[in-house]
Amino acid sequence: MARNPQGPWGNGPGTPPPDVEELLRRSQDKFKSMMPGGVGSSRGLILIVIGIITIWLFSGFYRVQPGEQGVELLFGKFVKVTPPGLNYWPPAPIGQIFKPNVELTNQITIGYRTNGDGRSSGSRDVPQESLMLTGDQNIIDVDFVVQWRIKNAADYLFNIRNPDATVKLAAESAIREVIGQTTLEDALTVKRGEVEAATKELLQSILDSYGAGVFIVEIKQQKVDPPSEVIDAFNDVQRAKQDQERSVNEAVAYRNGIVPRAKGEAAVMIQEALAYKEKVTKEAEGEAERFLSVYEAYKTGKEVTIERLYIERMQSVLQNSEKIILDNKGGTGVVPYLPLPELNKKKVEASQ
């Protein structure tokens, strides 16, 4: 194996290493020669101070990105909020800048915890947060999400210590108050949207009273169920209620079909009775008028009227009889045998 003819410092064998102190001294001498008047002079110190101050002043320029708000503090006291763009403010320790993102939508889950990827699949239930008491003294399990953004950067930074915890606790308080005024059935079915809207409004008013500088974007209920321990019994009750509603609907449909038909039949019967009444009344009035007219005729000519009435009555009595009755007064000259009934039958058949 061949050996390296040089030492570890690039010199020949046996050459001593370079003197480090000598190198540092030479570097210092070169730096002093570059400064006018030397480092130890007052003029050099002034230039160094001026350079440091210049660099410090230039560090006060800052840029606020779109979607952010710049919050300027002077000696730790809030002064103003700046919009996106290039701005200037005295740097630390005189001034201080915060640039929170006011367009970022933050999300807090209440009643459950996700598995870390933002989805509720495989989530862990937190009954201390989700179990609530409804207005009809029932227990309900509610999981929901609160989405919020920064409304005022200064209030958000200085009025509340822990924004996430503040929003979470206020949201729990708001939804418990709203659920406490809602029945179990309404909270599970028809009034879910109303519960979300009322909770959002109440939560926003609570945070505004704190001066939190937070805007509630939306409240979404993820799960609204009875507690898992009684969910089977609750489902049985719900099925029974559905059967009850179905029976009631069938009864109402039957009633809606039978009642109008009965009313129609009753109306027909009433109309027929009224028609019969009108008919009987008119017939009675006609009979009365006919009787009165006969009576008036009787008063003027009694014998003629009596004979006419007798003839009319006999005609009505004997009109269907096959016998022929001849008056003795008008019977002279009549053939002793005359087949009048046969002739009468032929006359009736010819008329038909």
Your description of this structure?
This protein has 352 residues and is α+β, with helices and mostly antiparallel strands. Among the domains are: 37-98, no CATH class; 106-226, Band 7 domain (Tetrahydropterin Synthase, Chain A, 2-Layer Sandwich). It is built from ten helices and eleven strands. It has helices at residues 20-34, 42-58, 127-130, 153-158, 163-179, 184-188, 192-210, 231-300, 302-318, 340-351, and strands at 61-64, 70-74, 77-82, 85-88, 95-98, 106-110, 112-113, 124-125, 131-133, 139-150, 214-225. Strand 9 and strand 10 (139-150) form a beta hairpin.
Overall, the morphology is: rod-shaped
- Strand percentage, roughly? 15-25%
Averaging pLDDT over every residue, what do you get? 79
Helix content: 40-55%
**CATH topology name of one domain:** Tetrahydropterin Synthase, Chain A
Structural class: alpha+beta
What would you give as the CATH superfamily of one domain? Answer: Band 7 domain
Give the termini separation.
Answer: 156 Å
Largest sheet properties: 4 strands, antiparallel
Number of strands: 11
Low-confidence segments, given as residue ranges, are 1-10
CATH architecture field of one domain: 2-Layer Sandwich
Radius of gyration: 58 Å
SS summary, helix count: 10
CATH class of one domain: Alpha Beta
Topology order in helix (H) and strand (E) letters: HHEEEEEEEEHEEHHHHEHHH
